[in-house]
Each structure stands twice: as structure tokens, then as C-alpha cells.
Automatic annotation (TrEMBL):
Pfam families with a match to the protein in the record: MFS_1 (PF07690)
Membrane topology: Multi-pass membrane protein
Species this chain originates from: Kribbella antiqua
Protein name: EmrB/QacA subfamily drug resistance transporter
Keywords: Cell membrane, Membrane, Transmembrane, Transmembrane helix, Transport
Domain Major facilitator superfamily (MFS) profile: 23-478
PROSITE patterns according to UniProt: MFS
Stretches of the chain forming a coiled coil according to its record: none
InterPro entries given in the database record: EmrB-like, MFS, MFS_dom, MFS_trans_sf
Location in the cell: Cell membrane
Length: 492
């Protein structure tokens, strides 16, 4: 069920147990830096706008420039890890991301900041795309691998809420420049530790997958697709002529890429990887769950800010219970659940808890009380995410050949990124539309709350669709050793 071999020059078996876990923590430190960046910047956007004179529309490019580069390059970065060595790509991404962070912090103009954010996105894609592939290689034994993936899943899914808190503290205590400068010591230390702790791998070599046309087509398709979601679709609507034009371009580029990969001698993305029902289903679930969860964290923050009057630091503290619950489950209990029941059952149970939490959020009123109307939702989301995301990460790599581990890692990251961008655009648009529709008949706060309620309900429906896919498309997991042993004892 799990990947067990690779082209590592220093095999995982040659590393001591402590060294492998230190290597995991180093990989997770790199991932945390990438994940934190998104929400840290969101909290600091008002301060950036005031300082550099951004308009409301141009301010979106501080986020969009990063998302376009990050989402567009994840798949390519994952494959490059297979070809050139995953540690090499991880280190290259760290260097690019850290250098771009310094440039962001030094930026005194809008143009410099937006360009630096794009470069940050490139570094983020290179760094994060290969991490999951390295983890399944470092931990070939199923029980340890499940635990390691639990740690990674916690960092990847809960790190964003930590960013809300860190962004509020840094922005209010010092200034917005430090949300970028703080990456310099973290990135430098992570790079040094990565060289010392992570075994080097030589990769398959460019001769096994030098597909320049395919690389150009998929990168262009993903970048245009993400741009379409975060810009014309979000601002002009899904049926606007500009949105439709960019949508058609995206579809044509994707179709051309598929044709190229089906006929290339050494394809960048071998289409055989999608023959796995488990991998295909895991990516569909990842896209849907990311759509619901990311959109709700964003719109939930707006509910706390605009309706309940929370400031940036209070919003960060409000979401902290989700992080704590998710961290406890991911690190301490996800491995035990996966080994006892297999990954499929925890996946379904976690997704159901998320659906319940999102549905409950539709009842949050204008004069809502945090402990009554918000905290129970956040705890349910924490339980759901802590149970399902580690299982989902394991399933996404379950049927993958060792030589395709980087590609599969980049693929699951790509579906999460595109799903999150799509979900945010759809939910934010529908929320705003609903608010505008009732603005003439209801007070402002009630109109805003109506819009948020609609988005929460749609998010619940999106994640419910992921539950249906998990129940019908995913293969039943292999029976864990502990479960077989229990059955044998009962029979005896």
C-alpha cells in the first residue's frame, strides 16, 4: 500500500530512527514556512495597502501573483524532483523562497512586491512539491509512515491558522515587512539541516523525462487556469466574456498537454499514473475538501471581523483551537486509526465531521457568541481535518511507483491549490451576490451574515460530495496487521 523503495544514494534503512525523524521535522519546517506565508500575508494586507498605496483591485495581486506561480508549477516541480533528485529541488526551492522573502520585505513599491511574490511562489512550489515523496521514501514501514504522514498533514493543513496568529502579532507589534523577514533565519536554518539530515538522491535523470513541450503546456495551463479563477472569474463573474476566453484557453492548453503526454516517448507526466483509482479518487477528494475548508477559513475570518468585530490578532486566537485539535489528532492518533481501521474509514469519518461543522456554521447569527456559535464549529473542523487529512495523504501515495513519487506528491499539492483557489472564488462570489441581493431589505450586518450562511452551506455540500467519492470510488484498504491479528485471536 505504501511506497517502499527509491533511488536514494543513502537508503532510508541506513539512517537511524532518530535521524529519519529529524529529517521529517526538517521537511515539515520547510512546508510550514510555505503554508504560513499565505495566511500571514492575508492578515497584513491592510497595512501593505496603506504603506505602498495599493488600490483595492491592485492589492489582490499581492496574493494572486504568489498563487499563480505556486499553483502553476507544483506539478512540474514534483516531476523535476523525480528526475533531478528530490532533495536538490527541495533545497533549490528553499533558496529561491528565502531570497524572494527578503526582497518582499525590502520592497518599497508595488511593482517590486508583486514581482517578489511571484518569485516566492516559484520557490514555494519547488519546496513543497517533493516533500510527500521524500516522506514515503524515508519511512517505508507502514506504521511509521502513517505517523510521519500524520505530522506532515498537520503542518500542511493546520499551518494556515497559525499564520493568522503570527501575522497579527508581527503586523501589530512591528510592521508588515517582518512577516517576510522572519523567513530568512527559518529558511537558512532549514536548508542547513536539510543538507545534513536528508539523504541525497540522484533522480532518474533528464533522459528519462525530458519533455519540454509537455512542461510548457502544463505550466501554462495551470497558470492560466489559476489566473482565471482568482482574477476575471472572481471580479467579473463566471459568464463574463473575459472569463470565458481565459477558460477556453485553459481547456485548450490542458487538452494539448494530454495529447502530448499520450504520444511522447518520455512524457513529463505518464498518463498511466491515473489508472490508479485510489490516486484519482484521492486527488478528487483533495480538490473538493480544499475548496470547502480554505473558503470557509477565509469567509469565517470575514464573519469574525465584519460581523463580530474581531481584529487580526483576535481572529488568529479564535482559530487556534482548530490547530490544537488537528495537531493532537494528526500527530498522536492518526497513525493508530489508520493502522487499526485502514485509511478509508478515518477518511470518511473525518470528512463527515467537516460537513457537520460547516452545516452548523450556517446557524451563526449576527450577534453570535464565540463559545456557542463558533468554537464548536472550529473543534469539529479540527477533529475532521486531523482524522481525514493524514489518511488522504497516505491514500494519495498508496499505489504510486517509487519513480513517480515526486510526481504524485506534486499532483496532490496541485489539486489542493487549484481546489482552494476555485472554492474561494466560488464561495466568495456567491456570498457577495447573496449579500447584495438582500442589502435593500436587511441591515448591513444581517445581509453580510446571509451571504456567509450561503457560502457555509455550499461548502458543506462540496465536502459532502467528497464523502460520496470516498464511499464509492476509493478501494477498500488492505486489512491492517493489527486487525487481522484481532480477528485471528477471536477465531481461536
Amino acid at each position: 500500500m505504501y511506497a517502499t523503495t527509491d533511488t536514494l544514494a543513502t537508503t532510508p534503512a541506513a539512517l537511524g530512527g532518530r535521524s529519519r525523524w529529524l529529517a521529517l521535522y526538517t521537511l515539515c519546517a520547510g512546508m510550514l514556512m510555505i503554508v504560513l506565508d499565505v495566511t500571514v500575508v492575508n492578515v497584513a494586507l491592510p497595512a501593505i495597502q496603506d504603506d505602498l498605496g495599493f488600490t483595492s483591485s491592485s492589492l489582490a495581486w499581492v496574493v494572486n501573483a504568489y498563487l499563480i506561480a505556486f499553483g502553476g508549477l507544483l506539478l512540474l516541480a514534483g516531476r523535476l524532483g523525480d528526475l533531478l533528485g528530490r532533495r536538490n529541488i527541495f533545497l533549490a526551492g528553499l533558496i529561491v523562497f528565502t531570497a524572494a522573502s527578503v526582497l518582499c520585505g525590502l520592497a518599497q513599491s508595488q511593482e517590486v512586491l508583486v514581482i517578489a511574490r511571484f518569485i516566492q511562489g516559484v520557490g514555494g512550489a519547488l519546496t513543497s512539491a517533493v516533500i510527500l515523496g521524500m516522506i514515503v521514501t524515508l519511512f517505508p514501514e507502514p506504521r511509521e509512515q502513517a505517523k510521519a504522514i500524520g505530522v506532515y498533514a498537520f503542518v500542511a493543513s493546520a499551518g494556515g491558522s497559525i499564520g493568522l496568529l503570527a501575522g497579527g502579532v508581527l503586523t501589530q507589534a512591528i510592521n508588515w515587512h517582518w512577516i517576510f523577514f522572519v523567513n530568512l533565519p527559518i529558511g537558512a536554518l532549514t536548508a542547513v539541516l536539510a543538507v545534513r539530515l536528508i539523504p541525497a538522491d540522484k533522480g532518474l535523470g533528464l533522459g528519462r523525462g525530458t519533455d519540454v513541450p509537455g512542461a510548457v503546456l502544463i505550466t501554462a495551463a495551470l497558470m492560466v487556469g489559476v489566473f482565471t479563477i482568482v482574477k476575471p472569474a472572481a471580479e467579473l463573474g463566471w459568464t463574463a466574456p473575459r472569463t470565458l476566453v481565459f477558460g477556453v484557453v485553459t481547456v485548450v492548453l490542458l487538452a494539448s498537454f494530454i495529447v502530448r503526454e499520450a504520444t511522447a516517448a518520455n512524457p513529463l507526466v505518464p498518463l498511466r499514473i491515473f489508472r490508479s483509482r485510489t490516486l484519482t479518487g484521492a486527488n478528487l477528494i483533495q480538490a473538493l475538501s480544499a475548496s470547502g475548508m480554505f473558503g470557509i477559513f477565509f469567509l469565517g475570518s470575514l464573519y469574525l471581523q465584519r460581523v463580530l468585530g474581531y481584529d487580526a490578532l483576535e481572529i488568529g486566537l479564535a482559530f487556534l483551537p482548530t490547530t490544537l485539535v488537528m495537531g493532537l489528532l494528526s500527530v498522536r492518533y492518526s497513525e493508530k486509526l489508520v493502522m487499526r481501521f485502514g485509511p478509508r474509514r478515518p477518511l470518511i469519518a473525518g470528512l463527515v465531521l467537516i460537513v457537520i461543522g460547516l452545516a452548523l456554521f450556517t446557524q451563526a447569527p449576527v450577534g453570535g457568541n464565540y463559545f456557542v456559535h463558533v468554537l464548536p464549529v472550529l473543534i469539529l473542523l479540527g477533529f475532521g481535518g486531523g482524522i481525514c487529512f493524514p489518511a488522504l495523504m497516505g491514500l494519495s501515495m498508496a499505489d504510486v511507483n517509487p519513480e513517480d513519487a515526486g510526481l504524485a506528491s506534486g499532483l496532490i499539492g496541485t489539486t489542493a491549490e487549484v481546489g482552494a483557489a476555485l472554492g474561494l472564488a466560488v464561495l466568495a462570489t456567491l456570498s457577495a451576490t447573496r449579500t447584495a441581493a438582500v442589502a435593500d431589505t436587511k441591515p448591513t450586518l444581517e445581509a453580510l451574515t446571509d451571504g456567509y450562511h450561503l457560502s457555509f452551506a455550499i461548502a458543506a455540500a462540496i465536502v459532502a460530495t467528497a464523502v460520496l467519492i470516498a464511499c464509492t470510488l476509493m478501494r477498500p484498504a488492505k486489512q491492517p496487521v493489527t486487525e487481522v491479528t484481532d480477528a485471528a485471536l477471536e477465531a481461536a
